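Let's see one such:

===
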Amino acid sequence: MNRPLLGVNFFAGDVTAGFGPYLAIYLLAQLHWSPQSIGFALALGSIVTVLAQTPAGALIDWTRAKRLLMVACVSAVGLAALTLVFSDAKYAIYCAQATMGVALAFLGPLIAAITLGVVGRRAFTRQTSANQAWNHAGNVVAAAIAAGLALAGYVDGVFVLISVMCIGMIFCTLMIKPSDIDHEAARGGVAEDDLGEERPSGFATILGNRTLIVFGASIVLFHCANASMLPLVSQKVASGGDTKSGIAFTSACIISAQFIMIGMAILCGKTADSWGRKPLFLMAFAILPVRAILYTMTDNSVALVAIQSLDGVANGIFAVLFILIVSDVTKGTGRFNIAQGALATLVGIGASASNLIAEEIVQFASYDLAFYFLAGVSILGAIIFATLMPETAAHKQPAAETS
């Protein structure tokens, strides 16, 4: 295993998660924003990410300064987090969310690209699963510290913590030697033209790929169903308490889920090549409606934390399988990162829609109705993936598909 990459992913656990549910709690219980305004603030970061994602992927494919780009994006996240400590003005919060959105458009694809460039395709599944396990471990540590800071009365501490994690991520990034990165491998290899000369394939190769289109539709629905669940349940708890208890509850939810995500990352590393990608991804989809319905059955904080732990199964599998499936489909095209960017754009669309629609439902109806809506969306996504998405692991495909 490449140790600097493991370190990058450990600190990225808190950095790439964004402000997310912590911001929802902070805006509701500390600043007393309405659910509708909170929905817009949460969606803003996702919307900006959507706009930046595909150009980010193209830039990552093109540039050989991947480490420098990583440092710049992580620094932007750290500064955005500190903005929330020093200002509670709406414009400052919106600007911080927008800055975070741009930076996150780069960070996920950058980590995947550098990983592929450093370890190569043969070790990619193993390194990716290890990366995700360390990522989740970093989230556990950060969430535990955030809970301690909140209970001690320092409700802004979670945002300072993100900045500290950014420093650690920058340090580990600089430990990766520039000469260790194979930039051709980092963009998925290259295709040959009619004269046998290597060249990256055109955008049409990606846009005209039916498998990527089906996968894209599936992940929009996956994140439309999933993205707002934790913010909603955190607000549900915080609406009857204060900021300290809300942040502590959210941290408990994150910790319970992240422990399971570590196990799921290890499971995917051991089985994704032998079982194939599709059955594992369907397992992730199957958890979403179960979790949404269970949220409507109790207001007990301990039970809600236990239910949230199921998120570890869904997101733990998604985090690994998303990268592996994109790598499978774009092999030899030279467009691994731009495909990541395009699909991550769709992730952002799903997440934005999830926060906007769910918060509107809460504003005008109830939390329970919002959870029923999310359950229905997840079932639709599972049906589309099960019926239309082919298996992408090469050795699991029929001979006709791999010829």
Remarks:
- Confidence is low (pLDDT under 50) at residues 192-196, 399-403.
